[in-house]
């Protein structure tokens, strides 16, 4: 057994604790009243199943000074009917202008009609935990800049466990939860929950500035950084949750592949190198354990089994803070890790070579700086 390999392996494992060193949560302040009026803007396309859960969770919130706006983005299901029954302000999105994509356009329309001092953009598949809106608002009041929260990932079906490494890498790549967080500005925003003062939104151009971006949350975060508007990132456990890609494996593949490779290119180089080394350590721990098992040697098997178990425990420590992933997912981590690597390569091919991704029944073409959108019912020459 080569002890140099073991030393390298141990070093790579330690890097994992650097990646997700601390994940702060939103907290409410005792005695703090509903100081600001809130406008909660929800872009929704084909969300008839998820939207009622979010609207119900918002009705149960104690924060009183709020309005809820649902922007229905040319849905093909009963999203409009569900929104209208929810007792909220409903907007039917206008036709998508040339150069815009669906979500930025819906968010921008909602912001223009909002009356609140603070804008909160929520994805339709999120839901607010008890007193979660109060926690988000009070956290924002303490920061008074831009607050973005990555929801706690609720999983129910077996295939949803395959999102494990996407969650870990996404959180780590942001830069806000690493041991270097005090020296790095976040590379972007978390799209599912974004909070900012109206003046910051329109001063920065808001979603108009990222109208054609597939990964609009990262692009908007970059615009805000250039305008020196500070961003604070939080984990959503106990505040806001979501169930991502609940409509099956196809949606999960489309969702993660539509921009994950783009996000990797925006990651700080030192963090990217740490991520690559950590992933490499996880792969090598598996390889050395398999190799030792074939050699049928007790000491190497014990050593590499310990190294493998160390990775599994570390991965579960990460996952427990960002979602309700199962312990067996961490123990069998080579499976979701292999899925992550395969889908990352697929994302790279779709974004940078084929320049075409799919989302919410739309094919999005990324050629020539112009983003053409095609619905599932139209030909490639039709534009919505």
Description:
This protein folds into two domains: 3-19 and 268-356; 38-246, Spore Coat Polysaccharide Biosynthesis Protein SpsA, Chain A (Alpha-Beta Complex). The chain has helices at 3-19, 51-59, 79-85, 102-113, 132-143, 164-173, 198-204, 216-226, 249-257, 260-266, 269-295, 298-320, 327-331, 334-353, and strands at 38-44, 66-72, 89-92, 118-122, 126-128, 146-150, 152-153, 193-197, 231-235, 240-242, 356-359, 362-365, 372-375. The chain starts with a helix and ends in a 9-residue tail after the last strand. With 384 residues, the protein is of the alpha/beta class. It contains 14 helices and 13 strands.
Please sum up the structure shown:
Helices cover 46% and strands 15% of the residues.
Stretches with pLDDT under 50, minimum 5 residues: 376-384
Helical content class: 40-55%
**Can you name the CATH architecture of the largest domain?**
Alpha-Beta Complex
Shape: globular
Backbone CA Rg: 22 Å
Major sheet description: 7 strands, mixed
Extended strand count: 13
So, the CATH homologous superfamily of the largest domain?
A: Spore Coat Polysaccharide Biosynthesis Protein SpsA, Chain A
What is the strand content? 15-25%
Secondary structure elements and their pairing?
Blueprint: H1 3-19, E1 38-44, H2 51-59, E2 66-72, H3 79-85, E3 89-92, H4 102-113, E4 118-122, E5 126-128, H5 132-143, E6 146-150, E7 152-153, H6 164-173, E8 193-197, H7 198-204, H8 216-226, E9 231-235, E10 240-242, H9 249-257, H10 260-266, H11 269-295, H12 298-320, H13 327-331, H14 334-353, E11 356-359, E12 362-365, E13 372-375
Helix pairs in contact: 1-11, 1-12, 11-12
């Amino acid at each position: 057994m080569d002890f140099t390999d073991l030393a390298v392996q141990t070093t790579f494992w330690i890097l994992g604790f650097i990646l997700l060193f601390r994940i702060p949560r939103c907290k409410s302040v005792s005695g703090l009243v509903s100081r600001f009026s809130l406008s909660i803007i929800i872009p929704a396309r084909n969300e008839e199943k998820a939207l009622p859960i979010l609207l119900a969770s918002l009705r149960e919130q104690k924060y009183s000074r709020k309005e809820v706006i649902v922007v229905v983005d040319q849905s093909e299901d009963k999203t409009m009917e569900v929104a209208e029954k929810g007792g909220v302000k409903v907007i039917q999105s206008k036709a998508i202008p040339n150069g815009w994509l669906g979500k930025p356009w819906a968010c921008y329309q909602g912001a223009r009609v909002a009356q609140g001092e603070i804008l909160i953009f929520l994805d339709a598949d999120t839901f607010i935990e008890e007193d979660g809106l109060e926690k988000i608002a009070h956290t924002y009041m303490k920061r008074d800049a831009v607050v973005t929260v990555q929801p706690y990932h609720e999983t129910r079906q077996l295939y949803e466990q395959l999102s494990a490494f996407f969650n870990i890498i996404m959180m780590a790549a942001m830069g806000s939860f690493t041991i270097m967080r005090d020296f790095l500005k976040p590379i972007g925003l978390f799209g599912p929950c974004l909070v900012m003062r109206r003046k910051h939104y329109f001063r920065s151009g808001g979603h108009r500035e990222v109208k054609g971006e597939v990964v609009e949350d990262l692009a908007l975060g970059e615009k805000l950084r250039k305008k020196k508007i500070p961003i604070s990132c939080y984990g959503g456990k106990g505040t806001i949750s979501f169930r991502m890609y609940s409509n099956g494996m196809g949606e999960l593949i489309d969702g993660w592949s539509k921009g994950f490779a783009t996000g990797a290119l925006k990651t700080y180089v030192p963090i990217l190198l740490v991520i690559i080394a950590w992933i490499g350590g996880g792969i090598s721990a598996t390889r050395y354990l398999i190799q030792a098992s074939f050699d049928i040697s007790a000491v190497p098997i014990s050593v590499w089994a310990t190294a493998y178990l160390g990775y599994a425990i570390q991965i579960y420590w990460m996952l427990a803070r960002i979602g309700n992933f199962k312990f067996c997912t961490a123990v069998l981590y080579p499976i979701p890790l292999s899925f992550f690597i395969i889908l990352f390569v697929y994302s790279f091919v779709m974004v940078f070579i084929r320049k075409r991704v799919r989302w919410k029944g739309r094919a999005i073409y990324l050629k020539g700086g112009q983003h053409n959108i095609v619905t599932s019912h139209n030909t490639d020459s039709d534009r919505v």
